[in-house]
Amino acid sequence: MLIGYMRISSESDRQSTDLQRDALLAAGVDVRHLFEDRASGAKDDRHGLTQTLEFVRPGDVLVVWKLDRLGRSLSHLLSIINTLKEKQVAFRSLTEGMDTTTPSGELLFHVFGALAQYERALIQERVVAGLEVARKRGRIGGRPPAITGEKLEAIITALNGGMSKAAVCRNFGVKRTTLIDTLVRIGWPDSNLTP
């Protein structure tokens, strides 16, 4: 059985599913087997998509007008198609001509999978390179230090004067992990960093 899924990005009257509906009906989808969402592709809680994935059965074919109507990104699209594959449901995109019931469609699906993996690797590579450049320029990512300035100086003076780390935490109102992280960050000479 052919199952159709349509999505438009907004609930405004300006957008309509007519184009998608006509294409899906022309492809042989029964009007009773059409599901639709009026929501951004970035939303995780698309009720129509959830209903579609619950409705499909082994041997069915999920048909969309265009790939971007189904997934919000390449990796999300591949995740949905993998879910369909696990349910023994084929996938067809009319605009791109992708059809996992054919050998060439299956090949295209695997090419998309390789591209998504490559895209993830490139993003990770750029993030690591960006962090390294920032570190070389003296910028460290993450939250700003919790203990700084006069408070840090007073804590160091207290520790150098023999006050225990537990007493410092109580007297200065800092958490144990915050104190330890700060001492490690500044390279405090005490190697035993337990309160």
Automatic annotation (TrEMBL):
Catalytic residues identified in the record: 9 (o-(5'-phospho-dna)-serine intermediate)
GO molecular function terms noted in the UniProt entry: DNA binding; DNA strand exchange activity; hydrolase activity; ligase activity
Domain Resolvase/invertase-type recombinase catalytic residue range list: 1-138
Keyword annotations from UniProtKB, A to Z: DNA integration, DNA invertase, DNA recombination, DNA-binding, Hydrolase, Ligase
Record-level GO BP terms: DNA integration
Signal peptide positions (record): none
EC code(s) of this entry: 3.1.22.-, 6.5.1.-
PANTHER family documented for this protein: DNA-INVERTASE FROM LAMBDOID PROPHAGE, SERINE RECOMBINASE PINE-RELATED
Family of this protein: Belongs to the site-specific recombinase resolvase family.
Protein name: Serine recombinase PinE
